[in-house]
Write a structure and sequence with these properties.
The chain is mainly alpha-helical. Helices cover about 80% and strands about 0% of the residues. It is built from eight helices and two strands, in the order ββαααααααα. A two-stranded antiparallel sheet has the order 1-2. A hairpin with a 5-residue loop joins β1 and β2. α2 packs across α8. The protein is globular. The termini are far apart.
């Protein structure tokens, strides 16, 4: 039995050798991205399609109820953010949700969480590519399919260059997006 920080006894969970080697690997993963890069990646994901594309799509379906859906989604997201902050403080390791779930619920649930997260990011990326290519296509009067293919190739190439390069490019894009938002609000 181990003791929790409050002094209560907890069930001892001994990881298997495969789990143990995975955790050792995740602890050695080099952290190349600083605070600004991480903030930019997260903010860019929210701002790009979440501010410029999604409101128009949702408004066409629900009308003024759009704001209520944003408030409800924001409240639910806040609960998730608070939980992740607590887990990150308790277990400051590379690996994110996969690490936390694997450590607490085992490798099967950790793998399922990793696969689900991968699908969520894939769908979010597809939505962002659709929004960007539709916007550029409408602006230039071109069909959005070839533009979407080009956007995917460009962003894949950026990611192949590495986390450091991708985070610097993302930071520049976020500065541009925030500038556009400020211009819209001011003018």
């Amino acid at each position: 039995m181990r003791r929790s920080p409050t002094g209560e006894s907890t069930e001892d969970v001994t990881p298997s050798s495969a789990e143990d080697s995975l955790f050792r690997y995740l602890n050695r993963v080099k952290r190349e991205m600083g605070f600004l890069g991480l903030f930019s990646v997260a903010a860019g994901a929210m701002i790009s399609s979440g501010v410029f594309v999604l409101p128009g799509v949702v408004f066409s379906q629900v009308g003024p109820g759009l704001w209520l859906s944003y408030v409800i989604a924001g409240a639910v997201a806040l609960l998730g953010i608070l939980a992740v902050i607590e887990l990150t403080t308790a277990m400051p390791r590379a690996g994110g949700n996969y690490f936390y779930v694997t450590r607490s619920l085992g490798p099967l649930m950790g793998t399922m969480t990793g696969v689900i997260s991968w699908f969520a990011v894939t769908l979010k990326s597809a939505f962002a590519v659709y929004g960007l290519s539709a916007f550029i296509g409408a602006w230039l009067g071109l069909p959005y399919y070839p533009i979407a293919i080009g956007v995917v190739i460009i962003f894949a190439a950026i990611n192949v260059l590495g986390t450091d390069v991708a985070s610097r490019i993302e930071t520049a894009l976020v500065v541009i997006l925030l500038g556009i938002i400020v211009a819209i609000v001011v003018f």
